[in-house]
UniProtKB/TrEMBL annotation:
UniProtKB keywords: Lectin, Signal
Family according to the record: Belongs to the leguminous lectin family.
Upper taxonomic lineage: Eukaryota, Viridiplantae, Streptophyta, Embryophyta, Tracheophyta
UniProt domain Legume lectin: residue ranges: 24-167
CDD domains from the UniProt entry: lectin_legume_LecRK_Arcelin_ConA
The protein, known as: Legume lectin domain-containing protein
Organism field: Hibiscus syriacus (Rose of Sharon)
Amino acid sequence: MSPLLFSTAIITLLLFFAKVVPSLDFVYNTDFNSTNLFTFGDATIDSSSILSLTNTTFSIGRALYPLKILVKSSNSSKVLLFSTSFIFSISPLKGFLPGHGFAFSFLPSAGISSASLAQNLGLFNFTNNGDPNSSIFGVEFDVFANQEFDDINDNHVGVDLNSLKSRG
């Protein structure tokens, strides 16, 4: 069998057995509103489409995409690939203490009842941080060094899997 014919046969077999995985695509271009985001706690969206997660010192807010996002194939334990990009600004209000940061996250539930403010970034509380059954994944944008989480400095990005002790 010629190399070209062999390569064509292999590619054909791979395409035949490949499974199609549905994808979800969406884009937010500064058009935050209450129809495409659910807000919890102190999170607000103003008339200029600016999303604010907190409004005072020691407050907590969360904004979530309203539909569940498929992260695993239903017949497999493999995690599906995803990518994201966004632009943000962390701007403390004059006269208020700055916050600790925020996290882009995948959560098992929408509310904020199991989350704590400050160094917990609205992801965890003092009892579920480190619990392997939390089922929480987050990418933190942290602007405070917390020794209890082994933060590398006061301005870092970390990957959180069921814990605020970042893995990256």
